[in-house]
Amino acid sequence: MDIEQLLVNVQGGTTSVQDALNTLKYMPYDELGYATIDYHRQLRNGVPEVIYCEGKTVAQVAGIVDNMILRGTQNILGTRADRKYFEPIKEKYEDATYFEQARIITIERQKEKKSVGTILVVSGGTSDINVCEEAAITAEFLGNNVTRLYDVGVAGVHRLLSKLDYVKEATVIIVVAGMEGALASVVGGLTDKPVIAVPTSVGYGASFGGVAALLSMLNSCASGVSVVNIDNGFGAGYIANSINKLKG
Predict the structure, then answer these.
(1) What number of helices (H) and strands (E) belong to the chain?
(2) Which end of the chain is more exposed for a tag (fewer CB within 10 A), N or C?
(3) pLDDT in tens, 17-28
């Protein structure tokens, strides 16, 4: 059923307004041959479809952006984007922005209403900051206030303890750490707020590319800790946004 027929049915009384809204949540989409863009994801999930750039060609990413702009999408987020993806987009859209550390492309034409709470992003070390920035930029793009607290890992836990005000004031906390990933448990034991742990692939050989940190976080003795996949800063930022938006 297309939208025109749906409107006819509503006007004729054969379809209720609520049923029509439920139907609209799952239509429409555009098929580009190499991508099928879901234009009602924002209606269903509150966030437009996000472009995962890695593995796509430069032309494919540019084509998806062009189609989304043509269809009236106001805010576009592209993740895992090297600068090669950004250059042709910037040439065409002057309001495109590239975040080098986060490897994120944004076009932001409609500012999201800021959430009430604050998302705190904490890193174990400086080497984890790329993943932190992916989480932080994602959360900011989605309309959240974000505070950063970097390089406060357990090797010098006094650095974290001296910043406990940040922990107390946050609504949601994202903890990013590699090596043994112990920082998530420490933070989880200091707060009554939800903690989203992000293991990173930072570490020496026995860290197994982040698997050691992942297993440590999954086995955390702090009850309020949940875990996303290795290096998944975007996923952490997205989940933190969903939690923070519950404050209204």
Answers:
(1) 11, 11
(2) C
(3) 777 776 666 567
